[in-house]
Amino acid sequence: MKKLSILLVEDDPLARKVLETELKGHALQSAADAAAGLAKINTGKFDLVFLDLDLGAKDPLAGLRLIAPAASAGAYTVIMSGHDEEEIVSRAYELGCHDFYSKGSETESVAQVLTRFDRHRALPEDEQVFTNRFVTQDPATQTAIAEALKFAASDLPILILGPSGTGKTMLARVLHERSGRKGPFVAVNCAAYQEDLLEAELFGYRKGAFTGADDSRRGRLLEADGGTLFLDEIGSMSLAMQTKLLKAIEEKIFYPLGSDKPEGSSFRVVSATLEDLPELVRAGKLRFDFFQRIHGLTVTLRALRERPDDALPLIAHFMRAGGRRVIFADDAKARLRAHGWPGNVRELKRLVELLAAGAEGMVTAATLGRYLGEARAKAPAAEEDPALTESQYRKAVSQGLSAAVDGLVDAAIARCLAENGGKKTKALKTLKISTRMLYASLERTGKKSP
Question: Which residue of 40, 124, 176, 263 pairs with 228 in a disulfide if CB–CB is 3.0 to 4.6 A?
Fold first, then answer.
């Protein structure tokens, strides 16, 4: 085994001496208390960190507080303790430690730890992604992402499909990080802009190109030079915008608004949507050649309710970033698995924020009932149909289903706009609809902006 950089945090001088002997031959630093250990973690770079759990009578279980900083710094983190109660061991692993052994057989235990560390270091990068970046234990999701990662370093465009909140942006970032590209990751939510504003956002503009263009501005295409251009909700883009962007993607040359001088940018396209793009092509709302250009490889992410075993690992992952730690009772773990997660990972992150701000260290099913809601504790049965009122049904019969659906859409959009001060961008995000749907509704109701 090659020489490793190791930090040992142990307050007992005799135990520290024993460990120093077992780790002889490696670049070893020691600390006798939690404060000194944390200072070394924050200023050094270690392959392994050995942490005593109990660092003195005045600071019982202080080693727990050092796990997250050590793991976040990229160290393989090992807890050494005379306590081996299940709750403590579980707590340590939830905080992010990689290994745990009970004191008493240091020679054998340390040798086993070093062997497991070697095995961990040899893990394929794909497996590290699933524990540190796109956290998932779901075999189908791991397979889909692993396939995409094979093409991360290529110029092949990648299309990511999946419901809102499933981690499409995170996967796009991981693909960029693994691409080897020196340029930045530039994200644009296509649904958040009207057509003219989206064109200005992507292509940039020169001073005086339109009313309000008091200065020139670089567009996102130019910003993404040498990097990745991530186009979220690409299905909301108009046909005219698709035509302009298709030319820029193919030729890597474009004209900022108000300029006759072309700009060049070598960017890789990754896009995402929750819409059915082949259906948009059939409906004439998506150019076939544009569709072909953006989906060199298609990756589909499953909803969180389809991978219930991911809930606890994701919570532990987000909790480590937030600082506070909690324990889940068995009934709470069952509740997490049963919950339908209509908001997917985005909803789960909101739950983590609530738990981190709350006063309870032990989370029970009753706690989750307050935060998640009793009615949403279980996913809706697949065979159930949404409720249809008698008036809605009669309207469908008298006016036709299409007109009735338009009426519901118009009512929902009108209410959302009224509740958000008429802000269209807010309505687009809240209702998760395309710009095309919003403006079609405004035109039907005679409220389209000039």
Answer: 176
